[in-house]
Write the structure tokens for this entry.
Amino acid sequence: MISFVRSSLSRQYLLASFPVLLSGMLVIGYLVGRQVEERVAESMGGVSGLYVDSFVAPHVQVLLNENALRASDQKALGELLTQTQLGKRIVAFKVWRTDGRILYSADASQIGKTFPLGEGMTEALAGRVHSEISELSAAENAQETSKYTRLVETYIPIHATGLGKVIAVAEFYQTVDEVTHASSAAQRKSWLVVASVTAVMYLLLFTLVRRGSQTIDLQRLQLGEKVKQLTALNEQNTQLHDRVRRAAASTTALNEIYLRRISADLHDGPGQDLGFALMRFESVTESFSACPGGPAGAEFAAERLQPVHSAISSALADLRVICTGLQLPEIDQLSIGEIAARAVRDFEDKTTAKVALSGVELSPTASLPVKIALYRLLQESLANGFRHAAGAGQRVELRLDGQGLLVVVGDSGPGFDPQEAIRQGHLGLIGMRERVEVLGGTFEVLSRPTQGTVIRVHLPLVVPEMSYD
């Protein structure tokens, strides 16, 4: 079976269609033979009908007035079977009364017996000739079955002269030699014709199937080559995708390192310089205030130098805030729940707002880029909620979802249109989405006016990082 399925279509056609066509040829020949047998039997019945009308009917007209045949009539019927050509072809002959009683038979023991009316008798009593090949299974065929297995059985109605009334039925039995000969000849001719047509069809269809099979085999080879090429390209794309994800994850970590360096440089460079300048400026201001000029020096220090002192103090404070925002806390050794708690605590310390936090007990293994993304996401989303929703109903929820982390950040503020916010160039949402998607996560914002805002983020826990050693 496996070898058949794996073989070519042309070979499958050869193996599968041959028995079908052969069976069809045999069935057609058989049906034709049966039709020929029926037609020949009907033809023999017609000849027998003429024989009855010509020779038998005159000897049974007595049944118009009597219930049995006279001895002279029975003798005449017996002579018909021995002294005529048709009689020599008849192996058995019976005359039936209309009630199913046998009035004459070559077997004298059957005369006077009554049998049930069969299909042939019923047809004949209705005025029709009935002829068929009988298997001699009826009870009244006991004598015939001792010599034959099949006979042509013909029932012919016998009419009253001048009246058209059926007064008896004649039954003839003839051998099937003529029928068999005609049937065999017809079967041979039909098989020859069908075999010739079948062979031509078989060859034509085989040619078409072979051409189609060759085309399919060629296309299959070409398709196999294309599949191999696509498989190789898919593997390359997978490798490139993995490299891009690793590079993106490493970029996240490197960006935080660069931001930390920038924060340190600003704090140690311009920050120190501004602090030193502020100290020196305060010293100069005090000198002006204590100069011998008295009130004029103090007035000059208050009007001219104090605004400069305030500007330097404000710049130093802003610089320190910037440095604090750029520098990420040490979160390498913290769990997911601890990072969320740290982000929420830092937010509450800066704003004095309150945030409902759940999921702080989570401590699955997570890559550093995921921890950084989580902290920055909470930092940005909580700040946006405080800025636009006045911190109303702020909440953070962490849940494990399969092999990833689900983060939900929401508030009960006035809400907004996320698409309109993106069109207006709000970088907060764009930055959070890019930070999440670059790690292979998903980012979704649900917000409606007066119904608050919910940010749903799904992050993978483990992201491979490229090595820069």
Summary: The mean pLDDT is 76. The first strand starts at residue 90 and ends at 96. Strands lie at 90-96, 102-105, 130-134, 151-159, 166-174, 356-358, 395-401, 404-411, 442-447, 453-460. The first helix runs from residue 2 to 6.
